[in-house]
Amino acid sequence: MTDQKRVRKAVIPAAGLGTRFLPATKAMPKEMLPVVDKPAIQYVVKEAVDAGLDNILMITGRSKRALEDHFDRVPDIEATLEAKGDTGKLAAVRESSNLGDLHYLRQGDPKGLGHAVLRAAGHVGDEPFAVLLGDDIIDERDELLTTMIDVQEKTGGSVVALMEVDPEMISSYGVAAINDVPGEAYVRIDHMVEKPDRDEAPSNLAVIGRYVLHPAVFEVLEDTPPGRGNEIQLTDALQTLARRDGEGGGVYGVVFRGRRYDTGDKLSYIQAVITLASDREDLGPALRAWIKDYASTLADEPRETVAAPAE
């Protein structure tokens, strides 16, 4: 498509309350929970930048000021580290503030992911754009976003990331029914269902937190009524686009088989910390040795908790 515009912008919805991590998120955004020594949101921003998307709009909410502060300069800390000659920590501190051109917009009313994406319309304009959920980390060694951008440019529609999940967990996701595209590695989405019961799921292919969207999604979202949970669901808007022909029509899927961590889920968050730390040169050798030693002490049943003596 000769008139197809290149994807240049990314939108990161980060307005959720993070109730699954209370009380840790009582005064701290869930996106700022550390994964080893960087907050989860930094991995997401870096993924966008590495894919060539350095114009990033973050959709935030109340009590999310820490996100803006993290990606800002901190002259006092930088001056202290520079005076000490601690170049390693200085580079780490400056990394987040040098990632890209970040913008911030509050969602206002918490009306769901579709509403958060719609709030980005003024910033995005009439260009295709990427959406990266702020609590989904894709391992930087596994290619996904650049592949999705290539598919969007080739098809001219919208693209979602899909991943096979355990049918027992399917009700936690938007789920896609697909058709193969002859000769292509991507698939075409026939229809999507938001958080279906297991028996009603059209497949075990779940939509995970990466999208590359045609700007036609904005006009559809404008007319999309609240759905499940009384929220404006992005899945519902994509369902409409999947049935549409012509400009902006069609929704396609890239099936991801790499490493993904849902830092909004406690178990997946812990797995992300352990996996990423064990792969690092500075932490990995000692951590892997400890994991092997600790695992050998584990029984099938959890250890009995001994209550502290009463004072």
Automatic annotation (TrEMBL):
<dbReference type="InterPro" id="IPR005771">
    <property type="entry name" value="GalU_uridylyltTrfase_bac/arc"/>
</dbReference>
<protein>
    <recommendedName>
        <fullName>UTP--glucose-1-phosphate uridylyltransferase</fullName>
        <ecNumber>2.7.7.9</ecNumber>
    </recommendedName>
</protein>
<dbReference type="Pfam" id="PF00483">
    <property type="entry name" value="NTP_transferase"/>
</dbReference>
<dbReference type="InterPro" id="IPR005835">
    <property type="entry name" value="NTP_transferase_dom"/>
</dbReference>
<comment type="similarity">
    <text>Belongs to the UDPGP type 2 family.</text>
</comment>
<keyword id="KW-0548">Nucleotidyltransferase</keyword>
<keyword id="KW-0808">Transferase</keyword>
<dbReference type="InterPro" id="IPR029044">
    <property type="entry name" value="Nucleotide-diphossugar_trans"/>
</dbReference>
<dbReference type="GO" id="GO:0006011">
    <property type="term" value="P:UDP-alpha-D-glucose metabolic process"/>
</dbReference>
<feature type="domain" description="Nucleotidyl transferase">
    <location>
        <begin position="9"/>
        <end position="274"/>
    </location>
</feature>
<dbReference type="GO" id="GO:0003983">
    <property type="term" value="F:UTP:glucose-1-phosphate uridylyltransferase activity"/>
</dbReference>
